[in-house]
Amino acid sequence: MHRFRSHSIIIRFRIVSLLIFIKLLMIPTSFGIIFYALYENNKELLLQGVAAVGLTVTIAVTQWVLAARTRCPLCLTPVLARKACSKNRNARTLFGSYRIRVAAGVLFKGSFRCPYCNEPTAMQVRDRR
Fold first, then answer.
1. Distances (CA, A) of 92 to 6, 24, 57, 70
2. Cβ(12)–Cβ(80) under 8 Å?
């Protein structure tokens, strides 16, 4: 199992994974608020829904910027960014997404399997001995 060079890389992976899940929750929530506000004809709630959409866009841009530097320690491909690279034939998805599977592994298991090289990686710093 591969490991990372520093703690800052691990922190970056966890932050981006958390942002991915927050974005997944914010998109339907914000549009649900907007549709409900339009149904009830409530302008205050509509402004809150628009603010939630703005927050979602801010989270998406932050996640996009940080995800470019979340690289697999073996193949050096950004595993939490959208790439047009070919995936390994044994790579698996979660809800149809390779990135969500990697993010879930980072947050809940403490390891992930790269969808490009299919090698397992632990969320640990390697020994420098």
1. 27, 19, 28, 19
2. no
Closest CA to 10 of 54, 70, 58, 92: 70
pLDDT at 127 over 90: no
Rounded Cα gap, residues 128 and 78, in angstroms = 24
Reported confidence tier of residue 96, pLDDT bands at 50, 70, 90: confident
Written as six digits, the tokens of 10 are 């691990």
Q: Which residues are bridge partners to 121 per DSSP?
A: 2, 112
Q: What is the pLDDT of residues 68-91, one digit of tens each?
A: 999 988 888 899 988 888 888 998
Do residues 63 and 20 touch, judged by C-beta distance below 8 A?
yes
Angle, vertex CA 79, rays to CA 58 and CA 64, nearest 5: 15
CA distance 6 to 128: 11
Could you tell me the pTM of the whole model? Answer: 0.88
